[in-house]
Amino acid sequence: MKHILSVAILAVTISLIDGQSELIAGAQGSEQKGASSAAGAAVAKQGGNPPGVSGTLARTATYVTGAFTFSQPLLLDGPRGVIFGVQDLEPRAAVDSQGNIYVAAIQGVPAGTDVWKSTNGGGSFTYLGQPDGAQAAAATAGRAPGAGGGDEDIAVGLTGRVDVSALWLGAITNCVSSNGGANWATNPISSNVPADDRQWLATYQGNIVYLTFQQLGVLLTGTNSIFVLKSTDGGLTFPQITEVTTPQFGVQPDVQGNIAVDKINGYVYTVFTSNPDNNVYIARSTDGGSTFANLLVQSGPAGTSYANVFPILAVDGGGNVHVVFSDGVNVQLCSSSDHGTTWTAPVRVNNGTATRTALAPWIVSGSRRISWLASGARRVPARAGA
What we know:
single chain; mainly beta; 7-stranded antiparallel sheet; 4-stranded antiparallel sheet; 1 helix; 1% helix
């Protein structure tokens, strides 16, 4: 059976007052060909859990029609590369305070990472080249090999500084631009932790940048471990290295999501599913990334798997933390008003015939909008251990 993949976006406004959570949302489904169609939106009021109880009770929501539309897709192009031609994958986007949009995508190791920039709200994009390789010369001479092209992430600081992180076989290359992507300072060994995978970036005030990833099979046990590194020079070097989870004891990570910083107090958060993967956790640091506490967000029924790419978190302007994740069929949202100590029960975000299966959620901190990939076909979720 042929399934049509669509993208659904849910605009969410969340208020957390006196233990009560309110979700007011508008949603829109859009097929690949660019046509838009109405989906559903949620309006839900539910009391928070008792003190010390994380999200284990189901919440319900009512859904109303949204009215979103999307522009036609733009091709982000550039000259052909000498290794793989053009095969940009896994794009990530970041927006600075002036509204400039930066997009990064990987070519595969050792072909490098590409970056584009829009100064007109996404109306058009300029190819900036490969910060981990030929840099701006790639825009005219063609894409060349670089120390990157594996996983990538991109983040923009409060001053407009752009950080691009690129994974290669030896380490992680971090690239920093302070002039809008015209020039890049590059460090191909910004992390000296071996066997790292799927890194994420987050910026804070001044020149503080956080980098997180999983180390694969640490101590020959076959168990991954999460690390968080801190930079105070804008992302060129990361001398502070903290092991968040350890293979010897405690919570064992499975799929790790992004990293975020509370702009009010500097608390650092990352999110991951554990092993077994019917649990979602955050790791929280209150001391600038020196130490972390692992806190349970949601424990699902036995056999449920939340190990779907990726659990994602965001911190809003009031310091509330929001986590979205998928069980392979539905996207769920949990929120915390006490820095991750307790959580509201999960509420299903997707609704309607266009989003019977919802995967790959993302939540944005300022607007608290949630997006996900969706299909009208109903999928039977994978079970933990299957």
